[in-house]
Amino acid sequence: MTILQIFHKKMPPEAIDLTSWLLQYSPSLRCTALEACAHPFFDELREPNALPNGRPFPPLFNFKEELSTSPLELVNKLIPGHMKRQLGLQLSHSAGT
Nearest to residue 72, comparing CAs of 55, 90, 58? Predict the structure, then answer.
């Protein structure tokens, strides 16, 4: 049985991809928590006006401590530009090294 047979046919492909990444048997192939947060499944949460009622999001991007040791590529995927400016994040190529 494959993972595609387990999920409903209307399940978004991004959800299936994320789930299969999270359920990898080998820890070296499994994603980290921050990598999971940066997955395309969560891209709509990084949109500045994603809530249908126009209300602001709760503080979703307060990862300063976690991001201090993360690769810059992951940080750039995880934190959208509008939130980097709002949080005053100054990211350089030396982050995560």
Answer: 90
DSSP characters over 32-73 = PHHHHHTSGGGGGGGSTT-STT-PPPPS----HHHHTTS-HH
8 A C-beta contact, residue 79 and residue 89: yes
Confidence of residue 31 (pLDDT cuts 50, 70, 90): very high
- All structural domains of the chain with their residue ranges: 9-87
d(CA 83, CA 89) in angstroms, rounded, equals 8
What's the pLDDT tens digit per position in 43-83? 888 887 777 777 777 777 777 777 778 888 888 888 888 87
